[in-house]
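Can't paste images in this forum, so I'm doing it all in text. The chain is below; anyone willing to post the predicted structure tokens underneath?
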Amino acid sequence: MSREFPIGLTPPDWLVRNLKPQRAPVNRAATARAAVALSLPLAIGLAHDQPAYGALASMGALSGVIGDTADAYRMRIFNIAVPQFFGAIGVTIGAAVFGHGWAAVAAVTGVALISGMISSIGAVASVTGLLLLLNCVIGAGLPLPGAWWLAPLLMSGGGLLVLALTLLAWPLRSGVPERSAVAGTYRTVADLLAASGTDDYERIRLAVTQSLNESYDIVLARRAFHHGRSPDLVRLLAQLNAVTPVVEAAPAAHQRGVPLPAGIAAAVRRLAETVETGGTGPLELRLPTPADETGRAVDHALRHAADVVTERSPDPHALDDRLGRPAALRVRTARATRNVLLSAASWRYGTRLALCIGLGQVLVSTVAVPRSYWVALTITFVMKPDYGSVFSRALLRALGTVAGLVVAAAVLTVVPRGWWDVPVLMLLAALIPALTPRGYGYQTAAITPVILLLSDILNHQGTGLIVPRLVDSLIGCAIALVAGYLLWPESWHARVGDRLADAVADTAGYVELAFGDAAEPAARARSRRRLYRDLSSIRTEFQRALTEPPPNGRRAAAWMPLVVAVERIVDATTAARVRVKQGATEPSAVEISTIARQLRELSEGLRETDVLFAVRTGLTGPSESVLEPVRQEVAAARAIASPH
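Text version of the structure:
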């Protein structure tokens, strides 16, 4: 007999989503790097009877471990080295105003504004802004040993030690992360074809989109370093582009409702092995004989992919980058600077962060709070823009801090200060990359005892740090919730609704482009890739909104089916295009314009409201047109938007 929780004791869905750990494999190399990078500086400091210097270098290594998130080696240089430079600036500013009262408040608040603005640019800028503010807060809140230049040097050296450890295998594994990413995309596509006609198709299609996004990001990021055409890179891009026709044929195969022969997925997995090993020459796919137009589309796409995968030197001039070749670094830097200065979103986020940090600094300047820098540290982590909902981060930060403080209390009570700190720090440091993929709360629980152990080496307060740190964390979370969340009524519609409306409008353009005579195949592929990338990002935003309490979480749950419906419209359009290419009758211009118009009407409706709205479907009865599945999906989407 099953047991049920009483209604009053059943945890709400948003809380369950926040606390549920994410599944992720443990990166053993990252755990080993973290253990060595954080413990080695401390060991060197102890050996020279300067444990405080070693602790500062270990703090810098901690920031390097947090920023070590890229797969490609060239991107790791950006992800770690650039933030370290700005982190050195931050700790220098903070140390200069240490103990200067309101001057420190003004300086840290100003740095918070700049940090928040640059954090909105992208992933590297987000880590850069985080470290700029983080180190400024540490410098302004802790008495740092040595001359003014020593702390920035030691902390930057610790971060660069992480970078050096990550680059040790570069000569032996150059290009391996890129090849592994492309091969992984082929394997995910194989899973998608194997799931056609089954209930698992939608879930795996999302994984394919994510894998394609990651592969293009990794490969094109590497290309940004090449002024010319690298033969290996040209081949990787050609192989990545070659899987697109296979992905486009998958929706048509799924619409049949009958699983594809097992030999098709097996052929794609053989292609994945060839990509990963860099093999060339003839490859026997052993494909089954196609029985219909969909089977012919899949067969043709796989044979084309096999030709490209096994070709040693693809023509670089015939290569299409799909997402466009990255601009030069100078151009991208100028563009990012312009966007930061002129973007309303950048100023809005920077102002929110500065307000929270300013309030925290004013509070600890007027109220006796021991080692008050922890309040600002908490606000900095909670307000980081790409960690998800501020509400969720504040909740998970509080819970993770409590868990981390329990571990820290045990360490500070049982372990004597000195050389025993080195093996303990090795163990605690290894937990950071192991637990970070599980979720923000788990990352907080792993980082907290490390910071407290290093702080104790600098301040020698022992377990006296525990209770003040808990109080400071709760104060910081409360400030972030009130000043960074509740006082900024940026509705869920403003954050997500407009982006979904843009995606629906882009879908209308894709429908027109898919069947236009003047459109080139490369233009269709680029439009489809950008659309799927945008929809993937929108889905992520909706999933973050699901972790918030009502009304935002409830709205997200109500609107999520509409996101799925738009994805299905894109799939149906792609499937129709594949059928036309295999001989089906081209749809009329009237059909295309009708569907595009109705999608644009839906888009305008989404812009004008943050609740589900009434709209007529306006579609006629069933037809034999190749666009009939598209028309049905459009009708379903408009029906979702019209619940009455």
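Confidence is low (pLDDT under 50) at residues 1-5, 614-622. Residues 340 and 488 are 20 Å apart (CA to CA).
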